[in-house]
Design a protein that fits this description.
The protein has 4 helices and 4 strands; from the N terminus they run βαβαββαα. It starts with 12 loop residues before the first strand and ends in an 11-residue tail after the last helix. Helix 1 links the parallel strand 1 and strand 2. Helices cover about 30% and strands about 10% of the residues. The longest helix has 23 residues. With about 180 residues, it is α/β, with parallel strands linked by helices.
């Protein structure tokens, strides 16, 4: 198998979800991946320029779906420089000309572009709908990821699969409610 990260097949994968502010998308991804991937993955999140606060609508969305919000906080990627991370997933939105953070590390990375709901304006219901759409997009991708034979893929195979998952059309979820 290719890569140092796959030497121990039974080990839990450490996955870092990165965005710029670490207040919404990466927080949702961390919480969902830890909830759905119990025993298989351990997720963390961070930002290149963290806001210092988790968005209240992100927390409310997680609570509506009974996903734990314990230990979630906005943090810098600096705290992960010396930690073993098996793969990084960036969730910035290229379509919105948003700059994705580049983590200065040799860890393999994939990209799952998701629009940022943090700056959405509108009624409470409109804002809630945007957060639900973001949650749904991440949830679908994480479920697809967890369907993969994670312990049997090389690092490069995993990243290729994660990038394919990242190309899932966000509108796909509109058909699923």
């Amino acid at each position: 198998m290719c890569g140092y990260i796959w030497e121990v097949k039974a080990a839990m994968l450490n996955i870092l979800i990165l965005c710029t502010g670490n207040s919404c998308r990466s927080i949702l991804g961390e919480a969902l991946l830890n909830s759905l991937g119990r025993g298989r993955v351990k997720a963390f999140s961070a930002g290149s320029h963290p806001t210092g606060e988790v968005n209240v609508n992100a927390l409310a969305t997680l609570r509506r779906h009974n996903v734990s919000t314990v230990d979630l906080y906005s943090k810098s990627w600096d705290i992960f420089m010396d930690q073993k991370i098996d793969s990084i997933i960036t969730v910035c939105d290229h379509a919105a000309a948003e700059t994705c953070p580049v983590f200065l590390h040799t860890t393999l990375r994939a990209h799952w572009g998701v629009p940022d709901p943090a700056h959405e304006v509108g009624t409470d219901e409109e804002i809630r709908a945007v957060f639900e759409k973001t949650f749904g997009a991440l949830e679908r991708r994480i479920i697809k990821m967890l369907e993969l034979p994670l312990g049997k893929l090389s690092g490069h195979e995993l990243i290729a699969e994660l990038n394919k998952i990242g190309e899932m059309d966000n509108r796909e979820g509109d058909r699923h409610g």
